[in-house]
Amino acid sequence: MRLVLAVVAAALLPFAAPAAEVAGVKLDDKVRVAPNAPEIALNGAGVRTRFFVKVYVAGLYVTDKKTTTADVLALGGPKRFAMSMLRDVTAPQLTDALNDGFKANNSPADQERYKAQLGELTAIMNSLGGAKKGEVVALDYLPEVGTRVQLNGEAKGKPIPDEAFYRALLRVWLGENPVDADLKKSLLGQG
Fold it and tell me: N or C: where does the chain have the smaller number of CB atoms within 10 Å of the terminal CB?
């Protein structure tokens, strides 16, 4: 009888979706960006390629899965953009790509508006000294706190306030001129 009850109970449990795997990197289906924050789900994941070289696997985590940039940017709550490095990347490589992508996807007015925040983020990324193959750099947004940088789960620098800045930052990957069009599709679950 116990065996029958155990089988029935197991059948009633929701099925857990397997974690995604991209280019040999396993990504969790859900993460929590702070102890008291709700879990957020993997919206999509893909590989950032530059000149045919695979640089990192990116995963976008949000409160509700969305398939358009506008819908992702409109979401409230915590968010995470995680980069699992597939090769060693220097700090200048990280920050130059970030700054170029920010400039290509935000209006001149927004570039001026977020100049100080982008400068803070660039300084934090430079302080990392780069990222080695296998390391994970996460750009988290926590309501009431702001944008936080983590390296392998350890917070770096001070949080940068302003949710609108985080939305402008996400445009690097999700904007009209993303750093990698195929990656954008994957992050939005379209690829």
Answer: N
